[in-house]
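Notes continue from the previous slide.

Worked example: a multi-chain complex. Inputs as given:
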Amino acid sequence: MNLITIALTSAIVLTFLSVLLLIVIIGLRIFTDRSLDHESNFRKRALPVLKGFLAGDASADVTLAILAKDPYRALQLLMEESDSLGEGGRDKLRPLFASFSVVKKEISLLKGNLWQNRLHAAVRLGYFGDDAALPALMTALRDDVVAVRFAAARSLCQLSCTEAVEPIIRSLDVPGEVSQRRVAEILFILGARANEVILEILKSASYNDASLSIAARVAGLLRDKLAAPPLQNLLTHQVPNVRLNAVRSLASIGDHATIPSIASLSGDSSWEVRSSVMAALGRLHARAQIPLLLQGLSDQEWWVRHNAGASLIQLGDQGIKALRNAVEHHVDAYGRDVSRQILQQQGLLPATTESRS
Amino acid sequence: MNAIHILLWVILAYYIVLQSIYLLLVLIGATQVRRYHRGITFAEFRRIGESPLSMPVSIIIPCYNEAEIIVGTIRNALRLNYPQYEVIVVSDGSTDATVGLLSESFKMRKIDRFGRRHIPTKEVLGVYESQEYPNLVVVEKVNGRRADAINAAVSLSRYPLLCIIDADCVLDADALLHMARPFLRDTGVAAVAGVVRPSNGLSIVDGQILSSGLPKTLLGMNQEVEYARSFQWARIGLSRLKSMLCISGALLLIKKSLFEEVGGSWPGAMTDDIEFTMRLNRHIHDRKRKNHQRLIFAPDAVCFTEIPEKFRQYASQRNRWQRGTMQAIFRNRGMIFNPRYGMTGLLGMPFFLMFEAMAAVVELSAWILMVVCLVLGIATGSEILIMLFLAYILGVFLSLSSVLLTESTRLRTASWRDFWRLILAILIDNLGFHQFHLLIRVVGTFQYILGRRDLGAVMIRNGNHSTLTQHSA
């Protein structure tokens, strides 16, 4: 076979494949159009009935009769509605979810080999409100794929499973601040029910740095005053991230007795910690710490300087006066600059503010 | 076997390798897109959008004499769905009404804002903050090219993530959510690139996309096909192979710390985005550094950019891109076939050199050789036609593959009319347009060799964003 014959054969095969591809594209397009139309029509019919059911105007039977016409989209719709409702409202949807009898199927998907299936099953089980899913979700906390573990954790919290707090923290103590924030946010779903376990973790010495960081963060989000003493103990922890989360959480809790301990970290080796100390002093209205905040205006890191200035503003007249004074008399040029900058941002320094036209 | 035969075989082998790689990229792209979409969970983007813990972003928009469109671009940026972000617009020594227009439209007032100057830039003349939108900042500086403007904005930015876009870009409302998602899932993500598609044909009012559509001109339609091929499977396939060496400057989200570590954009570059991407790859894929970081392509983060619809502007733009590509490769030539950079050095850079930078020269050689063969009687007219048809139908097949990948996404053409226009553009793409593009690139290659380093003619905007903006106002 010579070159031209090969080229001709290839060209004929490719022409055939291209025509085939075009037919597939047209078919897919028709299918997608129909699917979108069907979804739109289904929503138009089902959504008012569902709203009526939640308002007590439509019976469960009538609602289910409409939803049963397309179970897949019905579940999507119920999940969306569940998301928009508060915790109490979600319970109203439980009988509707239960009527689809999909929990067993989802549990089997959660135990399957495909990680994408496990991921979606873990997410869906949180919405169905069926406690039968709890053991499978607890097992999923040990999944190899981090995303599945996160999804299982969220679902466990949606199902109000307080026994899962400790396993969640242990299974998701992956390094990195963003991951720890995500875990804290998930545990926050549990609300005050998580307080007791979080407190135990903060007091215990058997947890690693990541777990402690997460627990500290959650305590701050929950604003549990009982967590202030153990958080204060964490201010001397050797890992900066733990100290950082302890400072932030103490600021959120708002216990004025913790101000001296927080202020003691103003010279911390980590700029993130120093920066959060400055912010915390403002949030706690620590007027006695004005000299420390003025000192923070000349820190080598911009964020520390900025937070020190912003905190002075939060201290009211005394702080603003100190900041105005710093514009002229601060020993450090950076301190003078940032003071001017903060005052201008707040519209408190009109003399040098000029509009551009 | 004489010299012409050897050359023929070399070109044929080149062509077979190139098309095989393309087909491989189509397959990888298809599997990656499917994998990506299957990994998105219910309400995930809504959660990112509502979470106070999502990483804040500084959006950087460098501009030079963009009075026609800049207001629409900023209004679009200010409307994005994202919990916390700031918009920094840098007027890089604009001589038109850009700064005055911004002051008027957004009620700017001068402030003193200082940042850490890790990267030296041309002098900043003033920083302005909007009284209407506290998260909008305008920086006025001495002209120093797009890269210098970006570097100046980075110094003044506050947030850990930087989103760099062009002045003519209109972002999909959820684009930032889609681009931020990989950073939240994986701490090893260094930067995320998004899809760029032509904005010509869209209906945009006040920076808001009201309806989709395709460009009206043939040249615009051919670029639509080109962008679809490039972004629908090529980038995602290359990113899987750690070989995404060109992230469009129109849409990039990157960690600020990494941007500074790499040394920022290089103001001497003719295409600073390509040069920066190569340097970024060099930094993160350097085995000695053990960064273990990754570049990600988000196939559902979309940005629309204005494309030239006049041949002269198109030629100038592509000529600069070709020279910029050559410059970037030459500047980072140490990566080529260098095992220190892993797959990027052994596959990505050689691919970029041979099949991106040099493709035009090789293809033009093939055309010349065909004529020579015909004249010397080595090949008959019908044999030449068969070879040409093979090249044509391969191009059609690859372009159709990109349409197939697009059909199941939000980027599919809205109407059947647009769909058939796109198919028509695919069918005629290789009947003159491609050859014109080839010629421009060959000229660009030789001009680079001869030392041309300017940025070419300034793109004249259609101003479709701004016209509609003013109309709506």
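Summary box: Chain B touches chain A through 51 residues (CB under 8 Å). Chain B has 15 helices and twelve strands.
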